[in-house]
Amino acid sequence: MRAAVWLSLTACGAVVSTTAASTALWAILAFVPLVNVIAIPSLIGSVLVFVHTLPFATYLLLAQTDAPKHKGSLFLPFSPSRHLGILVAVSSYLRAVIILAPKFILTVIRTAWRLWRTTPFDDEVDPIMAGWWWERYASFGVEYQNPRRPGGAHKLDVFRAQPSDWQSTPSLSPESSSPPTTPRSSNSFVTLPDMDPGSRADLSDFPQHIWSEVPMGSPMEEENSDLRPVVVFLYDVGMMGPIRPRRWMFGLTGLLFAKQGYVAVVPDITTYPTGQMEDMVADVRATLAWVHKEIRYYGGDPSRIYVCGHGLGAHLGMYTIAQDVVVHSRDKVELHNAAVNWANMGYANDHLTSAGREIPNGVRALRIYGPDIELPPIKGVILLSPVADVIKQVRHEAKCWLEHVSPLRRSLGSSQTRCMRHSLGHILFAAKDLVDVDLLPRGALILHGKRNQLVPEWQGTWLAELLRGFDFEVTLRTYARLGHFDVVTNLMAGFESRSTAFLLEEIRSFIESSH
Fold it and tell me: Which residues does the annotated region (Disordered) include (predicted)?
């Protein structure tokens, strides 16, 4: 009897426990659809909101100035493919900032500590009497534009050459048996006088030597072996992102050049949207004019000025020189054409048989920005990942969905005509039959990375071929492992890598060969 009761109770307990387990299982199974209905769609919705919010935020931050007029008051992207391209670009930008920012800060601190502990290289100067300790190596915040242009940049940093490395760049001594280098007097620049084609000028006002033999401007100064070559570094004024480039970000670049025995100058350049191409060119002209006038005080040779630029800064430096050369060459041709026209119209006894050369409309409309500032002779240009053809670069950025967040098109001009007028390759190609090659610098060094996704390698290759068409001495070097920013970060003190030695050797050889 007791056994029967025990068995019945056990069976009831098993039934109860089975019922409880079944209830719990059904409760869990009933919650699974709830998770599927709420959690998974919420996760997908959050991802979609993030995917759309980040491109919207990027456009709100970077693309509202000079937005297309047909887009209305608010310019936002709605194409899924454009959103994907912007997400990739923003991710790369954030990754670079996260990696480089801490390293940059630590490098600055470590470099400052090392310089603090370094013995002054000038034994005759008491570091206490000379002022702050860093004044032994550089002068910061020197004004190069006076009076200042409203809203424009006006300061630069000068890094003095360090004598411990001067032996790496040998120079001719006064007792050297080698003949001194004779400067080319036609390498200076001057604005030719305007001439009214309607005036009845006599042919004697247009002697032949006026366009073929007369020196252009004042003669160049004799090179002084006690003074060091000067490298003016122009950062990439077309850098994308909310962090705008400033001269203090490239102080390590100036310091590395100073270690090689050069006087380095890093100026602030007006960037978009504060200014556009006209302001940038005026800043470069003012910087080079200041360097030619004042750099001797810092130990630099005003007759050996080299312009070094990165990205759109390389384009800006070479464009400033090319604009000056093209305009003066055009004026020279116009003066010749006027002389031919007056001779053929019978206002002179001796008729010229040669015909005037045709000047393209684009070249005829070209003007010098900052004409009141005389551009000094430039010995050579060092171009790091340069932009040469602006129109093709805008198209390249459009393929990456970045043309609206990049300042390239808007800083050079919203219209295609203005972009072509501000494109280095276009003005050189249009004036290929007019340019006086004697007005150009002696040579150019182009350094480009094959892994450059922002400025393709063909930009540097095409520019090299274009310059060689002017009988211009061009050295082109490409590096398989370097990207767009690697070319300049490898030229920063504290960021040296295996590629740094190759880059510095190319720069040293280029400067020595031009000397």
Answer: 164-194
> Rounded to the nearest 10 degrees, how much is the dihedral formed by the CA atoms of 421, 423, 429, 434?
50
Distance of alpha carbon 209 from the chain centroid: 39
Nearest residue to 395 via CA among 409, 413, 415, 383? 409
Who wins on pLDDT, 1 or 97? 97
Q: What pLDDT, in 10s, does the model give residues 2-32?
A: 544 444 434 444 434 445 555 654 555 455 5
**Does residue 57 fall inside a structural domain?**
no
**Whether pLDDT at 38 is above 80:** no
Determine whether 511 is exposed, middle or buried from the number of CB atoms within 10 Å of its CB (0-12, 13-18, 19+): buried
Burial readout 250-284 (b: 16 or more C-beta within 10 A, e: otherwise): bbbbbbbbbbbbbbbbbbbbbbbeebbbebbbbbb
In a domain, 72, yes or no: no
Q: Is the pLDDT of residue 385 over 80?
A: yes
The answer as to whether 335 is a domain residue is yes
Confidence of residue 172 (pLDDT cuts 50, 70, 90): very low
Does residue 39 lie within any of the structural domains? no
- The letter for the amino acid at 443 is G
DSSP 43: H
- Percentage of the chain surpassing pLDDT 90? 35
Total tally of structural domains belonging to the chain: 1
User: How many alpha carbons fall within 13 Å on the CB side of residue 450?
Assistant: 5
* E strand or H helix at 445: strand 443-449
The answer to whether the CB of 281 falls within 8 A of the CB of 323 is yes
We report the CATH number of the domain holding residue 218 as: 3.40.50.1820
Listed in sequence order, the residues at least 6 apart from 102 whose beta carbon sits closer than 8 Å to its beta carbon are: none
Full-model pTM: 0.78
